[in-house]
Amino acid sequence: DPELIRSTLDCLSPQNLRIHVVSKRYTDKTDQTEHWYGTPFSEEDISASRIESWKNPAEEKALFMPLKNNLIPSDLSIKSDKEVSQLSIIRNDNLMRLWHKQDQTFLRPKVNIYGEIIAPICYQSPRNVVLTRLWTNIMDDYLNEFSYDAKLAGLEYNLVNTTNGCQLVLKGFNDKIKLLAEKVLHRMSLASEVDSERFSILREKLAREYRNTKKEDQFRRAIYNTSLVLDHVRFHNNTYIDAISKITIEEYKSYVGWILKNAFFEFIVHGNYTREDTLALAEQIETILKPEALSPAQIPDNRITALPSGTTIYRETGPNPDNKNSAIQNYYQIGAENLKENCLLDLVTQILGDPAYQQLRNVEQLGYLVWAISDRRFGVQGYRVIVQSSSYDPSHLDSRVEAFLSSSREDLANLKQDSDEWKNFIEALITEKEEKDKTLGQETGRHWREISSRTYVFDRVQKEVDQLQKLTPEELLAFFDKYISPTSTQRRKMSVQVWGSAHPLPSPPPNTSFSLSAGLSHSSSDSGYDVSPSSSS
């Protein structure tokens, strides 16, 4: 609307101007006091001569109109082809697996491109992890000005390192997504180009980020320690701190050329993008990055450590002496995912979620942070309870979580197949699962979770709904008794405990035998495994 634009611009005149200046320099130059907060201030009219000078300003070369933003879309048409509206693989070879789905639901001129670049070199050592992280940060720094224009034009990109290599996300208006991809890919191919000053600044910024992890909340520390123990390959943050202090710009330039030398690409392209557009994008990746394929044996297999039956305890003193809080994460490992046990775990989580918060947070007042939730990673699932407290030590928190689980068994045992309570639980979970995706991004994310976890159950919702309708209270109780109940002889529990400065860590158990990872040692006990730190980490 040209008239609306013009009338709005007409309001931006010196006569309509109000200037607010806030500075300590004016402390002794105020003559009024604000009513509510007592803030001293003064006000004065802008002189007519100054307003007149602003009406006819001299030319200022430092002020100029921005250049044309070539990323703003011009074609907003919808590409409709119902024959290709199903998610499918359109390329699958030793270099790339390419998934495509042309949107026929939201009908917006947008596309989401999510991809994993599997490059084993990125996680071969703590040093390589740090170098790869530096690479992604330097990429962001270099593209900062470009990404501002892209964001104004409704385009976004994100590149982060992972345990398999890195993950690349491109999304926004499909008309200009090719230009965005070209710019990002070209920068990835020129990753070694960085000046020494920016390198030093970004290296120090990353080193500070690694050091600051010791100041995180204790419950986050407990979650992190859980992944340290469970993930088949995981490096401790302390090893990154050690590595980054010795990395030079020469080493960085030598390393980054190898990141994409051998790689495997798995991408999903979902939205207002045709099959031909998607295949052209794949060609663009090959042409710009010039990668060589990995052999199948080089593609890493993400695995989770199988816990022994009984109880495993991991304990450490929190690394921040100023943090008085303590925290635990009790993790109850179920095992490899399957549809039936997935549904049973979801049902346990739904039934016990609110009562856990009510009992542990509100009634017993253990702490403000309480969660009882499911956990799924790399195809393995578990149940976890997280509590952070300033009043109680982790041993007490652990005992109260176990007491809650014991008392919950009676509630589960009282559920009957034909009761309204059981039907309500089932119907509520089905309703939650059947909730439609509200945005293109939600649907892309749902597909990508199946791809990135390598489960590929794209009709999961329908299969789980069918499974839920068959479940019985007896099956739910048997599941709870086997995997979660404190009386189970088959249960695999790990209690990850972070002891705050208000709660001194008890003495470690005798007969410490060997190191598990940075700061961890292990010894046997009648209840399973008692894991205790040999030093604070």
Structure explained in plain terms:
- This protein has 537 residues and is α+β, with helices and mostly antiparallel strands.
- Helices cover 39% and strands 21% of the residues.
- An 8-stranded mixed β-sheet has the order 12-13-11-14-10-17-16-15, sandwiched between helices.
- Helix 3 crosses helix 6 and helix 13 packs antiparallel against helix 15.
- The longest helix has 25 residues.
- The protein starts with a helix and ends in a 5-residue tail after the last strand.
- The C terminus is likely disordered.
In short:
This protein has 537 residues and is an alpha+beta fold. It has helices at residues 2-10, 48-55, 126-142, 144-152, 177-189, 196-212, 218-230, 237-244, 249-256, 275-289, 339-363, 394-413, 420-433, 440-452, 460-468, 473-483; strands at residues 32-33, 40-41, 88-92, 96-102, 110-118, 155-161, 165-173, 262-271, 292-293, 310-317, 326-336, 369-377, 380-389, 492-499, 514-515, 521-525, 528-532. Strands 12-13-11-14-10-17-16-15 form an 8-stranded mixed sheet, with helices on both faces. Strands 3, 4, 5, 6, 7, 8 and 9 form a 7-stranded mixed sheet that branches.
